[in-house]
Amino acid sequence: MSNSAANRPVIPILTGPTGAGKSAALLPFLEKCPSLEIISADSRQIYKYLDIGTDKPSQELRSKYKFHFIDRVEPGERFTAFDFVRESEMIIAENLAKGRRPLICGGTGLYIKALVEGIVEIPEDDLQVRSRLESDVLEKGPQYLFERLQAIDPIEAEKTHPHNIRRIIRALEIFEVSGKTKSEFMKEGQEALPKYNYEIICLLPPRELLYKQINDRVDKMMEGGLLAEVEDLRDRGLEEKVIAVNVIGYNELFDYLNDRISLAGAVNLIKQNSRRFAKRQITWFRGMEELKFAESGQMAENYLNDLLNGEIKS
In whole angstroms, what is the distance from residue 286 CA to residue 304 CA? Predict the structure, then answer.
């Protein structure tokens, strides 16, 4: 590690798969230090109105403690990993200026990876360019667009299946909007140094226990009014937008409300999809470098106590 890197402030991150118990592990720190600010690294909790199914902190907790990125955008509104990094770094700087550090907590690996490894902003969607490229697919076929991608950005083309039309169109769209290839943006992202050093603690209970916790949490969400929350979203006219953001727990219950599945079937599907999601998260975390794995909330708490030594008083 270079001297400049060694001198960067260390910012703690508590992550782990859905249902691991991150929120429960967080509470002792908030009780000991009410001024501790939490940066939520959860791409589901950013959406307004999606409360029970995303397991947001309660209104009581949010009135007592400072949480960032909860209810940040409307369902369907754009919020990227770049937005998360840019705003998180501003929050961290504000906290450091006050002589304290925030705690980052959440299970969205993409957010955490972007924060830890650096990221650059890729141009937003251009619907006019995209529409023209989609017309080219219909008129000239996918092979025509793939060959264009091979000529413009051979590195990206090598990573892309010739029939992955969405990815091909997005890569060509980036080039047409910016004059730079997607590969060039990705290279810049790899070279963009993060402003801080991050210590990542990954709460990962044994799989059997994790799956039980997931199943129990789904039952608790149903008892807590998840179905009524989904009905309210439909009454607000938000069904299509919520379906588009694809948050587990909502689409399954929309299917129930639209008579496509029984309620018991929907609940079982939520549990199944949640377990599958946790499995994908675990794969992602195991692929990241320099994580400390904690099998229990107590172990995670001990790690965080060491990192925040001097700032959290018992």
Answer: 20
